[in-house]
Write a structure and sequence with these properties.
- Chain A: One of its GO terms (cellular component) is plasma membrane.
- Chain A: It is a multi-pass membrane protein.
- The complex is a heterodimer of chains A (293) and B (281).
- Chain A is built from 12 helices and 2 strands, in the order H-E-E-H-H-H-H-H-H-H-H-H-H-H.
- Chain A is an all-alpha fold and 293 residues long.
- The two termini of chain B are 30 Å apart.
- Chain B has one domain: Orthogonal Bundle (MetI-like fold), CATH 1.10.3720.10.
- The chains are: A mainly alpha (293), B mainly alpha (281).
- Chains A and B meet through helix 1, helix 3, helix 4, helix 5 and helix 7 of A and helix 1, helix 3, helix 4, helix 5 and helix 6 of B.
């Protein structure tokens, strides 16, 4: 879609785009180019000499069993977070869509976690599950469950998934509720007259009509779990225990800033950029036409 | 709903109340913890409020944890506010200007600019941290508000949002303005900007939260304590070596850190929802 009426001015449009383009070039394109460039070099730790090594950094990274572990960890983490967050929010949205009284109150009560920083979400959940003085940890221990996320990798993973999903429920809830309210009442009424009960109506009518929203949310949640959960992992587990929660994004930070492996970290950055690019294309190409809200 | 079944309505309310309770439980725990002496929450679980709440909040706000070299939370909150408002205002200004240029002018390289802006979508700060850090340090922006805000200011989504909105503004308005002799700048300020008011408000809510909640970036580029933002400051309270963890103060700080963005969401609920739904389009 294009405007028919436009202004003509030789220099003004350039002045208008200049601030954004300048910032983008300096802080986005240039560093991304640097990452690409660095990913083909090996630098000594003091930065005194560099050597061009073709794809060796990528070979090292992709051949590293720790990187493979990190891929698996990221996949488990993002899928678990996505399904937990989607499941809970769908249940709550369906219920909120049913009630006539108090729907607005429930909505506010469920919206606010969106505003909590991932790092703060990490602090809150870490404390509740802390083996020494956490209220949930104590309950688990009382039930005879041996809880210590500082030692047990699976428990650490479960904890970061819960904290990450908790934060995302409000977002999904909002979109699911909007999706549910778009479904024509007449459809539901018609099937009720045909004798379909609430559960049957949900699975045969509501759920299929909601699936574009669900798919959109799935992509958004995967992107969130990939890139926006750094704070949660950095606060709760620092990638541990023994690398059990070392996701791809955390690993870039850890190898680059803590391990000072510049070439390797740059190669990992480039791989991540390709993943974001793919997810962005899916989001734009595929979803823009399918989802309506 | 279609049929009137009291039991189902009851069940819906029950599930919603359980959901709200589970979602809110961490806040309850934080509030309770922040109301006790440090020793009372060190190895025991406190189920109910103590009497130290005001003392603890005053203590973190005014003095922070000096023993581990931290600054008063008051200072961190001011830093966070400046950073959040800077990112919010910066993103809105540069996005609305570039969207105006792309929609209302035909000029060489228009689409090139458009795609350069689009690329920022694919480059979240998390994936380009090392080289971006280097750029900021080369520019001498470490430990400055410029360094905290500028690299996060470019925003493809905000630009698209304004572009989308400008495209719905009727051509007749532009024609009328031109006939009355208004140039592009006058048109922008007297017609387009007032029309965009609700979009700007919606976006402002989302961007304020985004800016306030930044963690990794301030963690990397600030080394001086008095540049700490409150969200990244949490990290210093949790990973302390050789000191007793003071959970009561940590929880008080966490509550202070999340209060402003939550207040914004609750007060600006309508704009928040609009901003969220639209910025994802």
């Amino acid at each position: 879609m294009e405007k028919k009426t436009t202004f003509s001015n030789r220099w003004l449009p350039y002045v208008l785009v200049a601030p954004q383009i300048t910032i983008t070039l300096i802080f986005f394109i240039w560093p991304a180019g640097q990452a690409l460039y660095q990913s083909f070099f090996v630098e000594d730790p003091f930065g005194l000499s560099t050597q061009f090594v073709w794809f060796d950094n990528f070979k090292d990274v992709l051949g590293d069993p720790l990187y493979f572990d990190s891929i698996v960890i990221t996949a488990v983490f993002s899928l678990a977070t996505t399904f937990l967050a989607l499941g809970v929010s769908l249940l709550l949205a369906v219920m909120a869509n049913r009630v006539v009284r108090g729907a607005g109150v429930y909505k506010v009560m469920l919206l606010w976690p969106y505003a909590v920083a991932p790092a703060i979400a990490g602090v809150l959940w870490m404390f509740m599950f802390s083996p020494a003085n956490g209220i949930v940890a104590e309950a688990l221990t009382a039930m005879g469950y041996d809880w210590n996320y500082l030692l047990n990798g699976n428990q650490a993973m479960a904890l970061v998934v819960i904290a990450a999903a908790w934060k995302q429920v409000s977002y999904n809830f909002l979109f699911f509720l909007a999706g549910l309210q778009m479904i024509p009442k007449a459809l539901i009424e018609a099937s009720a007259i045909d004798g379909a009960g609430p559960a049957r109506r949900f699975w045969t009518i509501v759920f299929p009509l909601l699936s574009p929203t669900a798919f959109f949310l799935m992509v958004v949640n995967i992107v969130y779990a990939f890139f926006d959960t750094f704070g949660i992992i950095h606060i709760i587990t620092l990638g541990g225990p023994a690398g059990a929660t070392n996701t791809l994004v955390y690993k870039v930070y850890n190898d680059g800033f803590i391990g000072l492996d510049l070439g390797g970290s740059a190669a990992q950055s480039v791989i991540l950029m390709l993943i974001v690019a793919a997810l962005t294309v899916v989001q734009f190409r595929f979803l823009e036409r399918k989802v309506q809200y | 709903m279609v049929e009137n079944r009291p039991f189902l309505t009851f069940l819906s309310h029950a599930i919603l109340i359980i959901g709200v309770a589970v979602i809110a439980f961490p806040i309850y725990v934080a509030l309770v913890t922040s109301s006790h002496h440090a020793a009372d929450v060190l190895n025991t679980v406190q189920p109910w409020f103590g009497d130290q709440m005001i003392a603890n909040f005053t203590s973190v706000l005014q003095s922070g944890r000096r023993s581990v070299g931290a600054v008063p939370v008051e200072r961190m909150m001011i830093n966070s506010t400046i950073m959040a408002l800077g990112i919010m205002a910066g993103k809105i200004v540069i996005s609305i200007l570039s969207a105006f240029a792309v929609v209302y002018f035909r000029f060489p390289f228009r689409m090139v600019f458009f795609w350069v802006i689009f690329m920022t979508l694919m480059l979240p700060v998390e994936v380009r941290i090392l080289p971006t850090y280097k750029v900021v340090s080369d520019l001498g922006l470490l430990d400055s508000f410029g360094g905290l805000t500028l690299p996060l200011i470019a925003s493809a989504t905000a630009t698209f949002l304004f572009r989308q909105f400008f495209l719905t503004v009727p051509d007749e308005l532009t024609e009328a303005a031109r006939m009355d002799g208004a140039g592009p700048i006058r048109f922008f300020f007297t017609i387009l900007l007032p029309l965009s008011r609700t979009n700007i408000a919606a976006l402002a809510v989302i961007l304020f939260i985004y800016g306030w909640n930044q963690y990794l970036w301030p963690l990397l580029i600030t080394t001086q304590n008095d540049m700490t933002t409150v969200v990244m400051g949490m990290q210093k309270m949790i990973h302390v070596d050789d000191a007793v963890p003071q959970w009561n103060l940590t929880m008080a700080t966490a509550l202070l850190a999340m209060a402003p963005p939550i207040a914004v969401v609750i007060i600006m609920q309508r704009q928040f929802v609009k901003g969220l739904v639209e910025s994802e389009k």
